[in-house]
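Researcher: Let's continue the batch. This sequence belongs to Glycosyl transferase family 1, and it's 333 residues. Same format as the previous ones, please.
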Amino acid sequence: MARINLLAWDNQRGLTHDIRLLSDALVALGHEVHVTRLGPHRQDGRWKGRLLRLRMWWQWLRSGGRQARLYDANIALEHVRPAWFGLARVNLLVPNPEWLSPRSQRYLPRFDAVLCKTKYAGELFRARGCRALHIGFRGTDCLDQDVPREPTFLHLAGASKMKGTQQLLALWQRHPEWPKLVVLQSPCTAAALAEPVPGNIEHRVGYLSDIREIRRLQNSHLFHLCLSETEGWGHYLAEGMSCKAVVVTCAAPPMNELVDPSRGLLVKASEAGPFNLVTRYRFDDSALETAIARLTAMPADERALLGDRARAWFVSNEAAFAGRLDEALRQVL
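Model: Same format as before. Here are the structure tokens for Glycosyl transferase family 1:
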């Protein structure tokens, strides 16, 4: 059992979700986990870190030099926390490479290893001389088999500006003959649609606090449009797959690691420029039009097969995550 300090920004969105999932997995492996919840800035918590250094020094004196560190490992989620390096024997980073700024990248040599959610991230960090270990990640099982399913489309944009939302809405407006599209988007990023808005678009701007309504939407729509420009891992792809939905995403890394043609649909995407460590991609309009035509004409048994395979991948990934995480920690601790 190791004493692990999980350092993360508790942003009440994706990172909060990651804190819970990773902390639960570490505890299940038998580790003692302390969660240090910090803000978004790289230097946030440095005074707390300094106080802990004093505490560590005092404990070292009292133990006669036998206890040299407060923790066996610091695990930083997404953000680099330089003030905390000296408090653990081993320093690890679980990054979302699209959010690792050039200033934070300067600290990469200080980490003993980078625990990567995707193989794509592993390639990026190994190219920068890091010891990169693939752990993948886990998601939330959102399946509710009691919800009636319809051949309609769902796009969960949230507050992200990199889900391809505006491009998707503009394309759907040009096709009033298509089935219904429901878009959930935060008011922080939503833009008003140009008039007239066709009846096959339901653009819901706001926050859904009722998790039961979110699960109903995820399970009632057979098709999930997850056209991300990039992903740290891809929670909303994995959640759609857990619901046996047919997930449509960009044929680009790392989205194509979760979804492949045997368990979903990939649409052609073009490079849209760099963003921190990653390359962003934007889906091709004509490729998505072809995909929508295929989905609307797809026989029910083919849709069900894709959904079953997506669900099987989700279940397999969940079962394998703990083993990958355990193996990575055994290599570094």
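Researcher: Any comment?
Model: The mean pLDDT is 91.
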